[in-house]
């Protein structure tokens, strides 16, 4: 092999290594961005779920207070007497 062939192979190897380094950096950046988007979506879903649960609880309390306008606490359970007897039968 003469000097020109060695130089061509050297340039090819150096540019290939540079390309691999650049591409791997871009791939890592892409994967990180993908994970960030996924984490943000999961966080948003949890926030919506918590907000929905809170709204349901508030509606339940409003409904409970409208069914019991005297303000007296009726035992603090969510089950009626019929539901309690069914649950006791299951046990």
List the helices and strands and how they pair.
Elements lengths: L2 H65 L13 H10 L1
Along the chain, the helix and strand elements come as HH
Overall residue-averaged pLDDT value: 83
Task: Tell me how many strands there are.
Answer: 0
Helix content: over 70%
Morphology: rod-shaped
Q: Tell me the number of structural domains.
A: 1
Q: How widely separated are the two ends? A: 89 Å
Unreliable residue runs:
none
- The helix count comes to 2
Sheet-strand content, in percent, reads under 5%
Radius of gyration: 33 Å
Derived structural class: mainly alpha
Largest sheet: none
For the structure shown, list the relevant keywords.
single chain; 91 residues; mainly alpha; 2 helices; 0% strand; rod-shaped
Structure report:
- It is a single chain.
- The chain is mostly helical.
- It has one domain.
- It is about 80% helix and about 0% strand.
- The protein contains 2 helices and no strands.
- The longest helix is centred in the middle third of the chain and has 65 residues.
- The chain is rod-shaped.
- The model has no long low-confidence stretch (mean pLDDT about 85).
Summarize the model shown.
By secondary structure, this protein is mainly alpha-helical. It has helices spanning 3-67, 81-90.
